[in-house]
Fold each of these.
Amino acid sequence: MGIIVQKYGGTSVGSLEKIKFVANKVAKRYREGHDIAVVVSAMSGETDKLIRLAKDLSPSPDPREMDVLVSTGEQVTIALLSMALKDLGVPARSLLGFQIGIRTDDAFMKARIIDIDTSVLRETFAAKEVAVVAGFQGITDTRDITTLGRGGSDTSAVALAAVLGAELCEIYTDVDGVYTCDPNICDKARRLDRISYDEMLEMASLGAKVLQTRSVEFAKKYNVPILVKSTFTDEGGTLTTQEDSEMEKEIVSGITYDKNEAKITILGVQDKPGIAAMIFTPLSESNINVDMIIQNVSADGKHADLSFTVTKTDYEKAMSIVKQLSGELGARDVVGDPSIAKLSIVGVGMRSHAGVASKMFSSLSRVGINIQMISTSEIKVSCVIDEKFIELGVRVLHEAFELERSRTAL
Amino acid sequence: MGIIVQKYGGTSVGSLEKIKFVANKVAKRYREGHDIAVVVSAMSGETDKLIRLAKDLSPSPDPREMDVLVSTGEQVTIALLSMALKDLGVPARSLLGFQIGIRTDDAFMKARIIDIDTSVLRETFAAKEVAVVAGFQGITDTRDITTLGRGGSDTSAVALAAVLGAELCEIYTDVDGVYTCDPNICDKARRLDRISYDEMLEMASLGAKVLQTRSVEFAKKYNVPILVKSTFTDEGGTLTTQEDSEMEKEIVSGITYDKNEAKITILGVQDKPGIAAMIFTPLSESNINVDMIIQNVSADGKHADLSFTVTKTDYEKAMSIVKQLSGELGARDVVGDPSIAKLSIVGVGMRSHAGVASKMFSSLSRVGINIQMISTSEIKVSCVIDEKFIELGVRVLHEAFELERSRTAL
């Protein structure tokens, strides 16, 4: 039988009882005859606790030392889970990033995996041991500990599955799969049995919090099937896999939203080359990520209005940078709105079906929701709307695209 | 200027405030121009918390995984102390056992250091960085994490000082040095300015809890001077160093005691070769350390009474093993006494002075303290007495050998 990589998130290993429960799940899979690598996160709350400790100590904690600090969370979990497995008679071996050789670049706190040495893992499997791997962490060529950023354990798991040629990467979490929309907002939300990598990528980056975007990129690149399942029920699950003709029948697979957005508009900037760079270079230098950007040329053809969105957290900082620039830009005014949200529809079927965007716009307009900005890609349409209408918008679109039913045509 | 190794124990880094305080102490030394390696323990209570977690999870936690677990305590401290140093403008780099190359054997939970690679430390010094080293931990040739046992950070510090050829190893703790006896028992206890390695070794193994025995062995072997000082006062300190003629003038340097002893006596065993092995092999196989052993041949010359001491913790287990053996041994009876304690005098001056032991015995007898067992070495005399007399015994001997005054002749 083949290799299976399992990943358990922080809430799945959040107490000694839960660790024992997970050990039993792993043991069951092991006894079926699989070679198993289990990737675990820190016990829920632990990473935040460590970050708080650093922030209470230092106004801006050193990033290298931050990674030395927070990587202890996963180290604790792998030790405990390995103990629990051994108590069940399952041979197990905890493995840290440096012990395996999970090589990353040296971008502390948001490192990227360069490659993974499989020799230690293969020795572990050969010895019939379960490899219990610390997620979220890696090691640089100079033996510095790195971490992969929030949700990085997903990426660890998928990357391991990729290099090992695993038959499946199982991501165990506190939800039982990926839904057509947030079930907390819309009671007609339906769990998707399958979803393509591209759709999952869009959904992850548009606000669905099931998987880290980077992990889906990895899975797509190496064609690793990812099964998202609940730790505590056997039912359900969503398989993220290669796109096939069956998936295209579904025009829209899911509705996502992101409330963590704010809008800034610069009115009447001169419409000449280099203006965009003048605005966005200082923002990027201040580590502010800009999401959507829209520019309209005004009637005189010489001036433009430029709008863009940033996260709500970065809003104040971005506003003050842009206001300082407005003189240089010859801008008439700078106006901001932190009360917006982004509503998106995602589906590979859009490629082959016309009228999807216009159906979205008309559905929103019918209930009086004004669209402030629009951004599209091959498989998604995003609209910026007033934050207070976001739940209504999700429900309206869910119904318009008949997502409560499977395999709907336009 | 030379290299200085400093070690701060758990109580010295037990809170963020204390870590900042320690960072300031290190910074001061650094600015004097020294190359500095700082070895730290886990924040006080953390190691115990981790051990409790493992014991709550598993009836007998796997030793390899135990070391993966408990070594996180020091990892947290080195990250935090490095952050605090950088905030003071002092370049610093945290270093784990595997990053330096602190090679140990694979005796998990009680590993011994084999050697230490100095190249990373020398690079750190060359870059004018303080090396902030995780105490207590090492790495095997198969890249498994090990720990050195209770108090192991002392050994880490002394071993580093040895391989680096440091001019001094400073051990910062919550007491300001080594005393002639426990100041909690005897208000005339006097702090020793200097003590020889051999005396410190005897005192450490006889119950004084200032330094781990193994660290003193290292210091003696590599001739590393150890200064034991209080973290929170600048005064005081005891230097453990090579013996010199000045030290010999002091006949007795200190009085120690150990209440964690229990006595077992086997009455009327046959006095023939192999009997001792028959008794002590099974005890050793059950991981019971035997301290003192005394055998008296009885009047008929064919039978002997054999007494030995074990820790109070091992007493019940040892009694049951010995009772099972008593048939085989043809012993008349086995009697035990868990209410004893060991009282010792230590001093290199004993080598050149007669009558030290007899003065000890007569002083104890004068106040009615009965001596149950005696054990001597070149520089110490130990007596087993009734536990309830131990404090009295310490005070009587402290006065008899005039330890409240320095440089006393017999």
Amino acid sequence: MKITEVALVVKGTVFGKKSSRIGKILPPEEANKGDLTFLYDPGQNTNADIVITTARVKGKSGVVVQDPKRAMYRLLKHLTNTRIKPGISLRSLIGKGVVLPRQCRIEPFAIIGNNVKIGKGTCIGSHCYIDAGVVIGRGCRIHTHSTILSSTKIGDYVEIHANTVIGEQGFGFIRSKGYKRIKHIGGVIINDLVEIGANVTIDRGTIGDTVIGKGTKIDNLVQIAHNVKIGRDCILMGQVGIAGSTKIGDNVMLCGQVGVSDHLQIGDNVVVYAKSAVLKSVPSNKEYSGIPAREHRTVLRAIARLYKNAD
Amino acid sequence: MKITEVALVVKGTVFGKKSSRIGKILPPEEANKGDLTFLYDPGQNTNADIVITTARVKGKSGVVVQDPKRAMYRLLKHLTNTRIKPGISLRSLIGKGVVLPRQCRIEPFAIIGNNVKIGKGTCIGSHCYIDAGVVIGRGCRIHTHSTILSSTKIGDYVEIHANTVIGEQGFGFIRSKGYKRIKHIGGVIINDLVEIGANVTIDRGTIGDTVIGKGTKIDNLVQIAHNVKIGRDCILMGQVGIAGSTKIGDNVMLCGQVGVSDHLQIGDNVVVYAKSAVLKSVPSNKEYSGIPAREHRTVLRAIARLYKNAD
Amino acid sequence: MKITEVALVVKGTVFGKKSSRIGKILPPEEANKGDLTFLYDPGQNTNADIVITTARVKGKSGVVVQDPKRAMYRLLKHLTNTRIKPGISLRSLIGKGVVLPRQCRIEPFAIIGNNVKIGKGTCIGSHCYIDAGVVIGRGCRIHTHSTILSSTKIGDYVEIHANTVIGEQGFGFIRSKGYKRIKHIGGVIINDLVEIGANVTIDRGTIGDTVIGKGTKIDNLVQIAHNVKIGRDCILMGQVGIAGSTKIGDNVMLCGQVGVSDHLQIGDNVVVYAKSAVLKSVPSNKEYSGIPAREHRTVLRAIARLYKNAD
């Protein structure tokens, strides 16, 4: 690939040697002569001599763009083949009454239960278990070893990474000579454009559904309990846990290892910083941290006071 | 289903229109006309016109019961078919010397190692790996993609959810030109009526066993290290982690994301609140929180002091 | 096995009845008459009458060694058969152009993608998914249900436990009418002698690689984000999470449930105690704890002050 082609893809302006061929694409500190890198700051140090950044860099070639992160998004998308090769593996097991358009891909050792409906262009990875009656929309990618249990409805263009479990019984019991599990009959609704990481668990509702709103992105090893409702365009980072029946607004960001207690209401546009525990409902448009979580600036002040003269 | 039938199942007294047919069963805030819901407080707002609650509600029909949660348990149990359809899938692999009663179910792509013993009415889900010599009791449900490694003994009526791993090598090393794993030869004992969530990990003992006591319930993404002993009727919520050789009494509740350090003794009837880290042994019958964990009321007092005048 | 044989294996000196046959090998508090146990302190109480410890114990037999933990390592290694039985299961699927020496073992329902290279003596467990182009060295053990995605390179003598996912897309997005995933084209490099627990997730780099240094040991349910670089001989205990692009030195110990924020530099020989959150870069040779993490002694002092007169 030449710089001129890269410039077309990232919608920027070439500078330096236009005909340079790019070698590897690497982070600034790992790149060498001939490699291409992205510099959020054009003054940043790198051995790469081809850079995509916000201004011309002396002695280097590259592409000037407004937003190098967006340029990276465009270039990597261009370089990635996301088309699936349709086909139903003879080593998969397909139940009765399954709706399966020709453009789908079902990989070996996958099991598709009775009456499952799968949309056009969807790929079910190897070793997946799709339970009877599950509905999966168009253009979805369900990666290897995932388990999608009954009463789950998945929208369009949803991506679910490996080893994730959706729709297991929630953790609700009554006490009666020991604990007895309340049988969960609710479902899980995963709306369009949701992405879910690897080794995630999302439980079905007791009655009523667990819901993940459109465009929400969930990282690896996250736990979402029964009847949780998550709004649109939220970000749940690695190892977050949300307890039963909690409602989370739109555009909420829960940073790594955050926990949210059960039956709470979290407003829109809330940010909760890493490792915090939200134990009370919180209104919209604010930032929280701490255990138990409070407004972030309050926590910063209390911590400053705690450590005053302590170092 | 009619209200009169529901009343029989939940053992309550009908009020209002006895012949009403119930629509969906939904939470109070999601239910509509014709639906049935459960109200812990009979004054709670809902559009459902069929309610199961502790007193008659004007303008609605329903069933009066002493304990609506228990009524929910009874009704959902009644509505759920928990019987398995026995049969050994031709796509499973069964080793030599396996004890496998006719009433069992082995799903496709499951592997049952040599000399495994499985009790009556047990179901091994698709893609499970049951290692040589494992013993599993009667009426168990081992869900899809679970891994049960050798030296594991599972009692009766145990349920293990998807993608859970039981019996891997524990995290014990000696230092000798880098770390070298100590080979673990102990086992895992899962007693009767234990339930274990999805994506859980329970390691085998180094020497001696890791033990989960009768009736204990474990939520998703929990880590239980080698040689941990957990008593009866404990509740371990999502993402709890327990380090090696710790002993936990009976009726202990560890809330979400709690961590317990290694080689500790936790008494009976202890409650540890969410996100706490227990770094010292604690006696019975008390509540703990904080990092490091202390008595809960002490922590509340210290936090109140820390935040005094800080908001 | 007799005490004299044990003494040869653990390289120690017999005392007491040399010809005693050992029963079970159990922890001190679980052992009974006839059993063997290890005592780190020769005065420790046990019913075992065969002990491996640092000095003769009156009334018992056993072996005197300098380091009982090392003796345990030696004895358990001696008792464990770690040889694999080579062979390619007819129920596995092997792609085109795969390099697969005769001494390997591929278990049933495993999938080996096109052009995968596997070294001598490596075992790929049942139901594993090894993506096209993956390289795995000699003497590796990839346990059941693991997923190794493309652009992953694994060195020699690496062990990866069950249900672990290596090489999924990292959690990086741009915002543009909702979030859009940046396609990750980097790889994962797992160096020699690394061990990785069960249900772990290690994401591929965005550009450039995620790297795990030689001899590093990773426990269960750990999350390692895209472009993280971890040095040699580190210990990452259960449920640790490391956010994107963070660099960790050699000989670092991250205790259970520790979180490390993104784009940080952690020096060599750092210890971070359980449940801490590292939010800033930290230099070598120090101990940290707390949320946010500070030097451990500072945190201890601040906590002492906070709880003064609070109990």
